[in-house]
Amino acid sequence: MLPFFADLVSRTDEARRDFETNPVVLDAVANGMPVERYRHLLLELYHVVWHFNPVCAAAASRMPDSHAQIRYFLYEHMHEESGHEEWVRNDLEAIGVGRAVTEAYQPSPHTLALSGYNYWSADRRHPCSVLGMMYTLEVIASVYGGTFSAAIKESLLLEGERGISFISSHATMDVEHMAELRKVLNTIADDDPARDAVVESTLVNFHHFTRMFEAI
What we know:
Blueprint: H1 4-11, H2 13-20, H3 23-31, H4 35-62, H5 68-81, H6 84-94, H7 99-104, H8 109-125, H9 130-156, H10 165-185, H11 192-215
Helix pairs in contact: 2-11, 3-9, 4-5, 4-6, 4-8, 8-11, 9-10, 9-11
């Protein structure tokens, strides 16, 4: 039997490829984007990041003792991610979006569906589904974050890390997180319902994230 991490990569490869070959994504990674579109992207990401820890907390609270190590992993990850929505706020301020505008912004249906599914799956599907959300976000950040932030910096003539600190920092951080996540995913190799929930979550998260990116 394949280690679950390798199985997950194989079973969700098409969804990942749908994201990375999307014309909007390809253009953004290669050429950046106009400032107004980048503002909209960060506003959508603000809501994704804001809900990340609450989703993890919901999953941790429902995690059975048979997966206690995953619960502890979530605790540690929540601590590391605490306050990262402030990084997005700071980047938005750097490109001309005030805090009041950020707080009043209504996320797109795709972002609402993304967050809504993640809460539902943690509560009603299987708490391990949260690992699919984490896998999706960390693949996107670690593989594309560095190239995308460099393209944004060049296209918008930004100085230093102003306006790109969240995306550029997670490009580096999530490489380390992926190694940790691989170990955790391989601990559920013998739990078919948990494995299936993680796969489903990954497919759904890639789908909604791709649609969100297309819509900005």
